[in-house]
Amino acid sequence: MNRRQFVLGAATSLAIPAWARPEPFARGLLWRVTKAGGGTSHVFGTIHEPDERLADLPAAVSAALERSKSLMVEFLPNAYSQERFLEAALFEGRETLEAHIGAEDFARALEQLAPIGLEREFVNKLKPWGVLINLRAPKPAGVPSLDAQILERARGRRMAIGQIEGVEEQIFTFDECPLDSQVALLHHSLAHRAELIELARRTVSAYLERDLAGIWRQREDFIARYPEVAAHQAIMTKRVIHDRSVVMAYRMQAELRRGNAFVALGALHLYGSRGVLALLEQDGYRVARVF
Q1: Among 24, 134, 177, 228, fewest CB within 10 Å belongs to which?
Q2: pLDDT one-digit tens code per residue, 91-116
Q3: Inter-residue contact 150 to 264 (CB < 8 Å)
Q4: What's the farthest any 2 CA atoms get from each other in the chain?
Q5: Burial of 137 from C-beta contacts in 10 A (0-12 / 13-18 / 19+)
Q6: What is the mean pLDDT of residues 13-28?
Q7: Are 198 and 256 in contact (CB under 8 A)?
């Protein structure tokens, strides 16, 4: 079993729709954040999808990172958190994945997780959310994620690096999601894998256009075709996006008050009136698009 390839972290590969009208902060990935009496900082929206088109940081983003003294990211994985996250994703006792999703979809799960080297016995002990976050297109060889690029740059400059969430909070995001919603979303994802891979590709395209509203709209259009899972998707959207955005907007302010901070988090958290940028404005910060 290749445990090192087991995905760690929230909001990685789930297809998360948003039932949203056009709202503030619909376009842009890099934002300047200031407040009276404090310095200038930047908030950058990343994307977790593996894609060769994301091989390099945009020049404006790279320049802002170079001017910053500290970096704050969603989560900093390490050996302990990897093992703890994996442990939490497993059923205890005799409970099995196959018993919850049936033999046919269990066979699909085995097939779709085969590229990352997960053995049958291990997959059968995974909770549905443990499978969901690992259903993704194969990662292109030698292409580091935007998050990895940012961390490498920061470590190379010996910047102070902090995280917004701890591993237990990451686990809570998924583990407290109702089991029936986990099962329904897994059934749906296994049945529509090709569509989800295409959705991920189009999501990257919208990201490269800095079109946050477009990312949300694509997911909205996708889920509109499958109303039978709309209620379950709404639960996951609330847990993975909206609830965490509130926490992020609050916790990043310690670094923003010091100034010269660079905050990198998922681009989905930037969009609209419930995103971190709108929440920062409500707390008295001035937010201006840079890129």
Answers
A1: 228
A2: 999 999 999 999 999 999 999 998 88
A3: yes
A4: 61
A5: middle
A6: 63
A7: no
Res 252: pLDDT: 97
Share of the chain above pLDDT 90, in %: 79
**Three-state secondary structure readout of the chain:** CCHHHCCCCCCCCCCCCCCCCCCCCCECCEEEEECCCCCCEEEEEECCCCCHHHCCCCHHHHHHHHHCCEEEECCCCCHHHHHHHHHHCECCCCCCHHHHHHHHHHHHHHHHHHHHCCCHHHHHHECHHHHHCCCCCCCCCCCCCHHHHHHHHHHHCCCEEEECCCHHHHHHHHHCCCHHHHHHHHHHHHHCHHHHHHHHHHHHHHHHCCEHHHHHHHHHHHHHCCHHHHHHHHHHHHHHHHHHHHHHHHHCHHHHHHCCEEEEEEHHHCCCCCCHHHHHHHCCCEEEECC
Whether the predicted model's global pTM rises above the 0.85 cut: yes
Q: 31: Cβ–Cβ under 8 A, 6 or more apart, which residues?
A: 25, 42, 43, 44, 270, 277, 287, 288, 289, 290
End-to-end CA, the chain: 42
- The pLDDT, as a whole number, for residue 6 is 61
Whole-number Å distance between alpha carbons of 223 and 113: 23
Domain ranges of the chain: 23-78+140-289
